[in-house]
Amino acid sequence: MQENTSAAALIDALRTDRAALQLWQTVAREYQGKHAEVLAPLEVTEIELKARLVFCFDHAARQKELTKAERQLVSEIAAQLGQETLFSILLDGTPAECDVERLKAVYRKHSGSDIDAEVAEEREAEAAEMAEMAASAQAQADAPAIAATFAPDALAQAEALLALGPDGLDGVAEDKLALAIPVLREQLAAVNRELAAFERDFKAEYRFDPEQPIDPADLMEDLDAEIADVRDYIGELEFELSQFVDMQQLKAWLKAMKKQLEATRRREARG
User: Fold this and answer.
1) Distance CA 191, CA 92 (A)
2) Is there a domain that residue 271 lies in?
3) pLDDT tens per residue across span 139-155
4) What's the domain count of the chain?
5) Among 147, 162, 242, 255, whose CB has the most other CB atoms within 10 angstroms?
């Protein structure tokens, strides 16, 4: 009876994990297509608008019509936005058409920092993380193949039990269950390794946090939400660019922006 229970649990887990792997593979193909066709071009537009905005802030920082406090705010925003834009281009590889060297110079002027040094530091951290992931993947790849580990009759018995399902084991002899259980256990471990590797590679390709849990059933909905967010942000960037046409308009917008930043900092201070 104990062998029956163990085999049933293994079969149930193996079926569940194989279904999860199949779902990951199906959703990943759909995600890849929509990401490339819809989100990626929007991200390019976003970065190009942000670069234009950085140059506008840099120009505004030299305008005598602005107060010292306004110029300081403009400089602060130029530095922050410049860093975001350069990280997207240099680290994420977003293929935007803009003057990267000019962006670097503007960032250096307003932040006092060297973006190349910051990027090198980020890449070093990423390289260490990738090396750890590669070592883990190699260890998994070095696991012996199931077919080479077990005798043909054990493999055949495991497949027969899988076909019966967890509820179809009544009447199966204990010796047959005992023969198949090690195979089922190793098959489950192999699927778990493949599932972990697939998820790890997906996160690396699309720059998800490696520690972030992802449910593949939610991925497309999350992608649609991200696309909507980027479209909204593009609209905000276009609005912000329009504020630089008129100095009074810019001053009013900076006043509103200052209040917004102060409110954000108060929330962060409260934790």
Assistant:
1) 31
2) no
3) 555 555 655 566 666 67
4) 1
5) 162
